[in-house]
Write a structure and sequence with these properties.
By secondary structure, the chain is of the alpha/beta class. It is 42% helix and 13% strand. It is built from 15 helices and 15 strands. The strands form four sheets. It has a seven-stranded mixed beta sheet with strand order 4-10-9-8-7-5-6, sandwiched between helices. The protein has a four-stranded antiparallel beta sheet with strand order 11-12-15-14. The protein has a two-stranded parallel sheet with strand order 1-13. The radius of gyration is 22 Å and the shape is globular. Bound molecules: pyridoxal-5'-phosphate. The site of pyridoxal-5'-phosphate has 14 residues, from helix 4.
Length: 424
């Protein structure tokens, strides 16, 4: 067959873009060569509806083993009693959990999207906001922090069936113990969506939700540094609270209900090539070097937040506990959109982001979100961070000056030449 030069030319260009720029999108990372090799393998050819040992197709003896390896490694990594590694993405993982735990019209309580929450936690444009009745908690205006007394007040008033914690743009750790107390008080299920910090949580760098939350979902491609995908976990299995029974008359365990909500509930065949790559990534995350990586990610983020503050930028909540920060640019007279566009011209990638109590639209926004997982994978350390913030400051303070932007781009390209895409 003729080589598809149109696509492979674009892949080459994308490789060049990733290699020559500074990647600060908090949800992105660079996978290792072996994660990519597993993803680009013949495992993609196999249909394997069902679970290892219980499939609807023949010829699953090998993918049974690789999926089981993924499951076993994920359990070890998170100290989980049960996991399902089949969700195609973080959104799919959340869809399956909600299908398993809620009926249409049930109330859910999530973290406000404009304060750092995620679309799948009840946004009106998402299935979660269309099928269920959402209410939201947010951060306090002065501190930029979640006030758990306030979460409790809203929970007592709204009596949701499910409380969702976890975020896409919250730079502080979560109090899962307190949230569980609140959930128990209103008899809600507590879901932690750790999509962003999951790699840091896996290796004990942040609080662990698994002992406290009923169900935990995550993506596998953010700080966890695996292939694009999702996963559902439980620290301990439990009988379903609605008294649903098996054909034999026994109370169904939550694990069985969640498995069924993934397939056939919301998905067809699992992506066995991606699951093989997940197994590789979990193996990498269990290594000593991944702990060092996680610690370096947080160190780099901390220094970056301080460098921004030193230059007069307003970092929401005044700093970070994890891998990211949210910067309110209103004091600097530039919108998130303008900042994102100018930075891209200098080969620095961030995303514009709503900040708490934003007065601009989601297409403009007053802020940017900045994260260190990707640059840390490339091997950037403490000493590199002030330089990066200098370059970003130069771009944002001269965002209409094309000459300055071109000069910064040159420096960025020169700087990144020294680093492999995957240094760990
Ligand atoms: C990224 C993210 C998701 C969605 O993951 P996708 O793989 O893009 O579907 C869900 N929840 C949170 C909190 C996230 O940050």
């Amino acid at each position: 067959m003729k080589r598809d030069t149109a696509i492979f030319k674009l892949i080459k260009e994308e490789l060049h873009r990733q290699t020559s720029g500074i990647e600060l999108i908090a949800s992105e990372n660079f996978v290792s060569a072996q994660v990519m090799e597993a993803m680009g393998s013949v495992m993609t050819n196999k249909y394997a509806e069902g679970l290892p040992g219980k499939r609807y197709y023949g010829g699953c003896e090998i993918v049974d083993q690789s999926e089981q390896l993924a499951i076993d490694r994920a359990k070890q990594l998170y100290n989980a009693a049960w996991v399902n590694v089949q969700p195609h993405s973080g959104a799919q993982a959340n869809a399956a959990v909600m299908l398993a735990c809620l009926n249409p019209g049930d109330k859910i309580l999530g973290f406000d999207l404009s304060h750092g929450g995620h679309l799948t936690h009840g946004s009106p444009v998402n299935f979660s906001g269309k099928l269920y009745k959402p209410s939201f908690y947010g951060v306090e205006k002065e501190s930029g922090l979640i006030n758990y007394d306030n979460v409790e007040k809203i929970a007592l008033k709204e009596k949701p069936k499910m409380i969702i914690c976890g975020a896409s743009a919250y730079s502080r750790d979560w109090d899962y113990v307190r949230l569980r107390k609140i959930a128990d008080k209103v008899k809600a299920l507590l879901l932690a969506d750790i999509s962003h910090p999951s790699g840091l949580i896996a290796r004990g760098i942040l609080n662990d939700p698994l002992p406290h939350c009923h169900i935990v979902t995550t993506t596998t491609h953010k700080t966890l540094r695996g292939p694009r995908g999702g996963m559902i976990m439980m620290g301990q299995d439990f009988p379903n609270p609605w008294g649903l029974k098996t054909p034999k008359g026994e109370i169904k365990m939550m694990s069985a209900i969640l498995d069924a909500a993934v397939f056939p509930g919301t998905q067809g065949g699992p992506l066995e090539h991606v699951i093989a790559a997940k197994a590789v990534a979990y193996g990498e995350a269990l290594s000593d070097s991944f702990v060092k990586y996680g610690i370096q990610v947080v160190k780099n983020a901390n220094i970056m937040a301080n460098e921004f503050i030193k230059r007069g930028y307003q970092v929401i909540s005044g700093g970070t506990d994890n891998h990211l920060m949210l910067i309110d640019l209103r004091s600097k007279n530039i919108t998130g959109k303008e900042a994102e566009n100018a930075l891209v011209k200098a080969d620095i990638t961030v995303n514009k982001n709503m900040v708490p109590f934003d007065d601009k639209s989601p297409f403009v926004t007053s802020g940017i979100r900045v994260g260190t997982p990707a640059i840390t994978t490339r091997g950037l350390k403490e000493r590199d961070i002030p330089k990066i913030v200098d370059l970003m400051d130069m771009v944002m303070m001269n965002h209409t000056n094309e000459k300055k932007l071109a000069a910064v781009k040159k420096e960025v390209n020169k700087m990144m030449k020294q680093y492999d895409l995957f240094a760990w």
